[in-house]
Amino acid sequence: MSDLQARFEQAARDVQTLPERPDNDTLLRLYALYKQGSEGDVSGPKPGFFDFVGTAKYEAWGKLKGMPQDEAKKKYIELVKKLLG
């Protein structure tokens, strides 16, 4: 396992221990960076119109389309470190 992958996985664990819940925009950013870093470009059908949370997540992830997975992992790690203070 690469050092970047290990740090990414540690950040994913660390995010569960945040002292307070981030605002919704930050949560969407965390979600999108995690998905881009772990799975790559957005895939699958867009959630239905009335699934507001699912649609917001899908669209946030979609905005990162084309970002290399390693770059997304680095940005995710940086954001988690910032949130942990």
Describe this structure in words.
The mean pLDDT is 96. This protein has a single domain (3-84), classed as Acyl-CoA Binding Protein (Up-down Bundle), CATH 1.20.80. 19% of the residues are buried. It has helices at residues 3-14, 24-39, 52-62, 69-84. Helix 1 (3-14) packs across helix 4 (69-84), helix 2 packs across helix 3 (52-62) and helix 2 (24-39) runs antiparallel to helix 4. The termini are far apart. It contains 4 helices and no strands. It has 85 residues and is mainly alpha-helical.
Please identify the structural class as seen in this structure.
Answer: mainly alpha
| Number of E-type strands | 0
The largest sheet, given as strand count, sense and whether it forms a barrel, is: none
For the record, the CATH class is: Mainly Alpha
Q: What helical percentage do the residues reach?
A: 55-70%
How large is the share of residues in beta strands?
A: under 5%
How large is the radius of gyration? 13 Å
Q: Separation of termini?
A: 27 Å
Q: Number of helical runs?
A: 4
| Regions with little confidence, pLDDT below 50 for 5+ residues | none
- CATH topology title: Acyl-CoA Binding Protein
SSE series:
HHHH
The average pLDDT score comes to 96
Name the CATH architecture: Up-down Bundle
What number of structural domains do the residues give? 1
What general outline do the C-alpha atoms trace? Answer: globular
